[in-house]
Amino acid sequence: MEEGKGGDLSLKEMDFLGYPHLILMSESQLALQRKVETPSIDTFCKGRIVRVPKSPLIRVEGTETVIPCNVTDYDGPSEQNFDWEFSQGTDFVRIVSTWDSSFTSQQYQKRVSSREIVLRRSSNNAVELLIRNIQPIDQGEYKCITPSTDATVQGNYDATVQVKVIADGLTVSGSKARSSKPLKLSEGDSFELRCSASTTSSEHTHLQVTWELKNGPAWQEILSLTHEGKFQPSPEYEERYLSGDVRLDTVANDIYRLSVSQALPLDEGLYRCLVSEWVKGADSSWQKIQEKNVEVASVVIQQTALDVLIATSNMSVTERDSLDLTCNITTDRSGIFQAQVTWYFSESLDDTLSDARVLLSVDRDSVVSNSPLISLSHMDRNSYHLLVRDVGVEDTGYYFCQASVWVPQHNGSWHKVVEKTSSPVSVVVTALELDYQIVLNASKTPKFSDDPTELECRIVNAQNTDANIRFTVSWYYRMHLRNDAVVTDELLATMGADWTLLVGDKSRQRTQNGEIIFSKQAMDTFSLRIQWTSEADRGDYYCVVSAWSRYHNNSWVKSKDVTSALVSVFWATQDYTLTVEAVKLKPFFMAGHTFEMICKVSSQNIKTPRYSVLITAEKPLTDQSNPNGTTRIISLNQDSVVRLEDWTDQARVDGVVLEKVQENEFRYRMYQTQMSDAGLYRCVVTAWSPGGSGMWREAVNGLSNPIQIDFQTSGPVFNVSVHSDNPTVYQGELADLLCIVTIDRVVLEPDDMSFDVSWFAVHSFALDRAPVLLASLDRKGIVTQARRNWSSDVSLERISPMEFRLRVHGCEGQDFGNHYCSITPWVRSATGVWQREPEIKSKPIFISVKMDVLNALKYPLLIGIGLATIIGLLSCLIGYCSSRWCCKKEVQETRRERRRLMSMEMD
Question: Which DSSP state fits 884?
């Protein structure tokens, strides 16, 4: 707005500025409205609030001044507009506005155009008035005004702050003018820098002094003395400040000194002194009003030079000699310092320092670490001598030394300024060649099987041996091969470095049983003894003697192996032979008679043999009890202990007998033979010879000729069938099934035959399910019924010698399916022995079970009709009683005379 317009805008202008619903008033009208509508405290708290800093604001001439203003609790748009005005005690002059470019008065137009005075928006409801290079003429009152966008006038729409401009009285300078030459220091040296700062301000101000370092793109704070008188180090220098290495002192009243007692490489760079002036504002908070700095000095830190060198080049040392190495260090450091030296050893050149092993070290106080075989001596200030006595092969590797230089600090501690590691020196330790021979002798050799064998392995002509050398032995066996096959050596036993015996797989069990003994008879003699030598032990034997060397850490390492010549363990033997013959004592017999068979055994080249006998039978393939064909019946071991093998006939447990008749003759008997015993019978014989420790050893096996049992008979032939007069039954009725047996060829008396009968059912239309046993009747007349999960019952009875009837009582739906019977005939022979014939199965018959619909519905219909009748009668009774007693009312009527004509009121 221009001055001449008196601060009023037309409605059109307000609509253009974004306030279409705002009703404008003149200043007099606005004052009158404020007078009339003076808000209460509650209303004011809910209205618009404009805030500026508390007065006065003290600023220094020539500095940049920022005056913030914000508004809260307002209505209307989120983005608010602001007007700034200035007064020096009289009328206010317009400075700048956020919404009217013509708001600025003429006296401020130049400064606003040159952006010396700028109005910056920090948010939708806050702005900052920025005055660059503030001058004394800018001292006065500044008013922040917010045009109203509220529906009602509430709160305050402007706020005023007093700005006081004081003269610049701050002076900052270095102790000396900055020299073009940098300050050169050695690492670990101390240095001081000074800065002078004072103020002549009319206000009560405080100074804050900060030392900063620039060794990169930005300045880094070191240490500050705040305006509140507190020392505040930066995080990077906090540890050094607490240790006293970095300090800030005041010398006199206006001199501030930075002291660094131990210069580090990171202390190199440009140093400056930053001084800020602070004043306490109206709200009792400290405000920084100006800041000045001065560059004091440029510091250059020269690192300490250090050279570490081992005087000896790559070298070779013989085992058990001494290793002598010298580490020389040179440095350009002068003054007080101490060196620390550490010797390292590494087996590989590629190992890092952390992988290397520390041998010895001498610290800065010349204290040497302890080691029994290694010594470290300080020859002079720059030479350190390493001596390793009695070196071994394990000392072969790379040796290097590491040196560091330490300087003292003002607090008595030491600081490491430089550290360096020498180049490694290769040291090869040549082992002493052990010289010894091995002699293997057989002190005992077997002439026959089970004779003992003893081998002796002895060390001879041993040289360069002492207490640090230990010998162990390993025993090997090599089998004799008759062809050109590859020879494989088998480990029998071996000794570890601690003389612990480890036994191989071949000899483990025999060693545990005491059949093989490994022993060390002397320091140079080892023996192997086989108590009972078998044919499997024949072959070549040899021993390997290993030499072990002890290292400095008391560990043992194998250094040499020497193998002996072969010693053959062999004796002439003939192969074992075994002949077995089976003889049938009776050439012909009938079923029910006793079968006898003699097994005759003869052997050769077996020393004091004993025999074990097994009787086997090869049944016809039609025998379902043994589908494989061969049955193990009874056995007799070499100690004459009898055992039933696969003989499972409980009725004939004592029906087979195997006994030893003579030393090489055995007799087998089978009592009351049955038709099912037909087959081929053999004797399986094993010859045993006595082995070591009282054990029997298997020598050879033999199989006899077969003896056949074949019953040639023209006995009866049985047939079986199933019959039913009514194969279709209704539920709940009785089903009758007959199992009829017929006989052909021979007519037998009823007392000479008997049957085991079993009934089965397959509950399906096809025979695709497993049969279910219903009931069985044995030849002694005992009936056994199977368990059933439904209510129907079965009964089985013999109605004639050749007919058996099965009855199903109260048939259910689950009883349908195919039914058949199975019989096992028993026939009594002429000798009175019962013979069991093969089992016979009949063809199945299908039984169907139907439902009787009439009978099924008869009882439910009768029950329903009865219940309906009872419920109807009960309902009638309840209705009668209710109308008779519960609902009875007395009605009083006007008595009428009995006349011929009805009264008129009846019309």
Answer: I
